[in-house]
Amino acid sequence: MDIAFMTLSRLAFGYWEGQPLYAMAELGVFDALAEGPARAATLADRLAASTDGMVRLLDAGVALRLLTRDPETDGRYRNTEMATKLLTSGSPDTLIHWVRVMGRWSRPWSRLADAVRSGTTVEDQGLRLGDDPAYMRDFILGMHEYARRGAAELPSAIPLEGLRRGVDVGGGAGTYAIALANAAPELKLTVLDLTPVLDITRAMVDAHGLTGRIDTGVIDYRLDRFGEDLDLVLMSNVLHQESDTVCLSMLGRARDALRPGGRVVVQGHFVQPDRTGPLFATLHNLSALALWSGGHSRTLEEMAALAGRSGFTEVTTGPVGKSGLSMVTAVRA
Ligand SMILES: C[S@@+](CC[C@H](N)C(=O)[O-])C[C@H]1O[C@@H](n2cnc3c(N)ncnc32)[C@H](O)[C@@H]1O
């Protein structure tokens, strides 16, 4: 067996396996099958697709173990247990918005060489920030579906005692604000984000019974103030979207918004000092290039230095529990 050939062909074919998943998520196959097993022709009719294309897609779905086709049900397809749990929109464990975002992102990813040539994004980031409401909804809910699984690790990783007022800058659906509010009963939080995002945030906060504890504020985080006299400013998974100039401006405004002794927490994926790993962080860095104008991943040391340059003291770095994320924390003198 030629291991080098096998390894390379696995890499080169890598994107094929995700595509049927993205197509089934985009077409609504999993939700349609949640209503009951169906034949390919019926699904094609319901989902405005060709029967031939649908047969091929569903057969690949069976091969990928997302669907089954039961000969005893006359060739009808059904969701596997995994698809029912993770890919139907009615499931509390759903990842369907996140999978749809990954499908959308496979388009700019397919233009990676263009992004590398030009050194900048190949997608209009306004689309996911409100210009295309369906895309924005997939983006915000998708980030939540993915992040909420490890979100409780954050409050376990930072000192919560004495926290009364905090903001979550670019807080999206409120994933981390919800985790913090659940862990620190005295803490009131404001999720700061763009106008079209905050309807989703309010609905999410309400669904978690935290409406009195978490409110929202419209902000352009590149320009606006974050508040005053705060105990905590959280910036989670946002600074990789921005250049060093914007990061310094945001960290400076975080410092200004904190009371003396208040803490900024920058959470995200960071590359190791030689920048060649971990693998996911190096890919995240490429994603930042393709998707976010000016965005790039930093090392923890680089982020700590930006915090130091912004006037913070007691700068620390470390993992966020077992979430796979890391953080830089720093205190306003
Ligand atoms: C990758 S998501 C991170 C969401 C959340 N903080 C988390 O860790 O899961 C980036 C967030 O930044 C927000 N955002 C992007 N540009 C922004 C801007 N100029 N002003 C305010 N929020 C912005 C997006 O709407 C989105 O909620």
From TrEMBL:
Residues 109-312 form the O-methyltransferase C-terminal domain. GO terms for molecular function: O-methyltransferase activity; protein dimerization activity. Coiled coil: none annotated. Keywords: Methyltransferase, Plasmid, S-adenosyl-L-methionine, Transferase. Residues 10-89 form the O-methyltransferase dimerisation domain. Gene3D superfamilies: Vaccinia Virus protein VP39 (3.40.50.150), Winged helix-like DNA-binding domain superfamily/Winged helix DNA-binding domain (1.10.10.10). This is O-methyltransferase family 2. It comes from Tistrella mobilis (strain KA081020-065).
